[in-house]
């Protein structure tokens, strides 16, 4: 039995039951793919459900404010995805319908090759193979490929192989692309996992090069990238007559469009330290934050980009996950 046939048969018996797979709606599929970028399904699924409940259609999402979208996204991280999602919703509305070609889908803000292939194949059966972390791992191990997956050469090699394997999945009507892509993603997520893969029960064990050569732990290969940088932040939560001060982060830095308390290096002498060196890990940097509470007698003068709000209203503003953690240290 061929690789493709084996994968499809495995999927029929073991594939995950997910709500967006039950809906033939490109909006729902696109929303799931954006939310699940760099996010585990268990974490992303509640966000997808929340977005679908609040904004039933792409038109409703496009009509929302960016603040509303960021607030619903809070805690999921990689906030540029939320901004891109909102922008793309407006693009789709301007087009008059969801794009039905690969190039049209790629024209949406925040949609790259992988996401376009996933949406296109699942929603419209476009014969384009997806290549994500799961697919890289399955192919690298099964075929014994040591080309680094995070290089131009590796991306081309794995994409070509995935595309070649997808073609036998297409039936006489050209259907089956979405089924094969979902099968590959699920196989990598359930069977051929990053650590402790289920090799003993794998239907591909007899033809797996990595298993035969004892290279399961060595594949796939990833070239070392830039060193992660550290950054230290000091936040002051100001409490003045039931009010506090926050500001919205602008472009060119992390957390664009989200709110945070006073960020400063000059800590008032009467401020009280609530927590020290709270660690928060991002993709290319590690943050360490100190968090102070300051209850001044007189209203302090702050930079012009800070606004005063009622403390009770702070939950109405979208904040980064780190700030959400810090705010829990307050006695509110």
Written account of the structure:
The structure is a single chain. With 332 residues, the protein is an alpha+beta fold. Helices cover 41% and strands 14% of the residues. It has helices at 3-14, 26-35, 41-54, 58-63, 66-73, 80-95, 102-106, 113-124, 133-143, 152-166, 177-191, 209-213, 321-327; strands at 229-238, 243-248, 259-260, 262-263, 272-281, 285-294, 306-310. It is globular and about 80 Å long. The mean pLDDT is 92.
Record keyword descriptors for this entry.
332 residues; alpha+beta; 4-stranded mixed β-sheet; 3-stranded antiparallel β-sheet; 14% strand; globular
Summary of the model, kept short:
It is built from 13 helices and 7 strands.
List the helices and strands and how they pair.
Blueprint: H1 3-14, H2 26-35, H3 41-54, H4 58-63, H5 66-73, H6 80-95, H7 102-106, H8 113-124, H9 133-143, H10 152-166, H11 177-191, H12 209-213, E1 229-238, E2 243-248, E3 259-260, E4 262-263, E5 272-281, E6 285-294, E7 306-310, H13 321-327
Parallel strand pairs: 1-6
Antiparallel strand pairs: 1-4, 2-3, 2-7, 5-6
Helix pairs in contact: 1-11, 2-3, 2-8, 8-11, 9-11
Rg is 24 Å
N-to-C series of helices and strands = HHHHHHHHHHHHEEEEEEEH
Residue share in β-strands:
5-15%
Count of strand segments: 7
